[in-house]
Amino acid sequence: MDELVLDAVSQSYGTRQIISSLSFHLARGEIGCLLGPSGCGKTTALRCIAGFEPVQSGSICIAAATVSRPGLTLAAEKRRIGMVFQDYALFPHLTVAGNVGFGLPQRNQPAAKARVDELLGLVGLAQHALKYPHQLSGGQQQRVALARALAPRPRLILMDEPFSNLDVELRERLSIEVRDILKREATTALIVTHDQHEAFALADRVGVMHQGRIQQWDTPYNLYHRPANRFVADFVGQGVMLSGDVLNSRQVRTELGVLDGQIPVDCSSGGCQACPRSCGVDVLLRPDDIVHDDDSPLQAEVENKAFRGAEFLYTLKLPSGQRALSLVPSHHNHAIGEKIGIRLSADHVIAFRRD
To answer: Would you report the helix, strand and coil content of the chain in percent, each value rounded to 5?
Structure first.
């Protein structure tokens, strides 16, 4: 059963369209994410779901009940939604336990205290129950905010850029921890972020947004390996577009060799099956699609490199002058200007009509 459904939701501020015909759904217990650059409309979508903004058109349903449509905006406090804000918004005068239990009815009763103890154990902060927010690290404050949102057992948790104030290493670790906590509570959640690493670590389904519209609502795996359009291909992960020619509906020839697979290319009105031979396309190649191989006859010049600890990200200049990226284990430390052997090792073909 779907816990959250957005059906063709639009919202404007004056004459400026912020979100347009936004549609997606989350099943009960599923974690979703709206991912996109600043100004794409993702926070406005979150505010509409929370009940902080009305909708111009379309509808929002939570647990099969309509909470927003033109002329109807159910008050935020009646939606049974938990919010985790970017700045945590903890009460500085309350202890950790006091913050977590703040939204519980009869919070001084044994049942409420048991719920607080349960959640503090769940988020790993039982030993900090009597501390105040200023005595905690940023990561600990984030977990208190999550526990507070979970305490009343909401239907839905909304999180707005929840890790943006944390350093990169802590952000990645907390993403995994928060996902585990949400799954153990079987809580449906929607996260808004501009960071794809957070989105991929947390979410079951991710919606990539651009100019107020969802470009693709899919699993993280499909967003990376089967992007629906150029914007998604460019925004998610790293890669370069290499020119190629369609040989048939299952093969594209590139400078690095022939790629086999279903060609998802819109190079003619009839799609890839109707595409004529030698139709020009751009093929997306990820850094893990190009393998360093000393025995390969195909050589490329190292134009730039970025050390990443376990590996280098090499920018390679191909014989034609085109560029490619390759992830290479860091014990292969080649100098800029040096030529190295490479070979193609791509499992997915991502091709777009050449503009």
So the answer is: 25, 35, 40
Distances (CA, A) of 71 to 18, 55, 76, 117: 19, 8, 15, 41
pLDDT band of 270, cuts 50, 70, 90 = very low
CA distance 95 to 97: 5
DSSP strands (E only) in 156-298 = 156-160, 188-193, 205-210, 213-218, 240-248, 251-254, 257-260, 279-285, 290-292
The tokens describing 140, both together, are: 């600990």
Q: Are 316 and 272 in contact (CB under 8 A)?
A: no
Q: CA 25 from chain center: how many Å?
A: 15
Rg (CA), the chain: 24
DSSP assignment letter at 287: G
Q: What is the pLDDT of residues 19-66, one digit of tens each?
A: 999 999 999 999 999 999 999 999 999 999 999 999 999 999 999 999
* Cα distance between residue 244 and residue 242, in whole Å: 6
Q: Which of 82, 325, 34 is nearest to 194 (CA)?
A: 34
SS3 222: helix
Q: 24 vs 27, 89, 227, 284, CA distance in Å?
A: 10, 28, 17, 27
Per residue in 168-180, pLDDT tens?
778 888 889 899 9
Residue appearing with tokens 């449906």: 188
Q: CA-CA distance, 153 to 132, in Å (whole number)?
A: 23
Cβ atoms 51, 79 nearer than 8 A: yes
DSSP string, 259-285: EES-----SSTT-GGGPPTTEEEEEEE
DSSP class of residue 22?
E
- Residue 38 CB neighbour total at 10 angstroms: 7
Confidence bin at 318 (pLDDT 50/70/90):
very high
The CB-side HSE value for 314 (13 A sphere, CA atoms) comes to 29
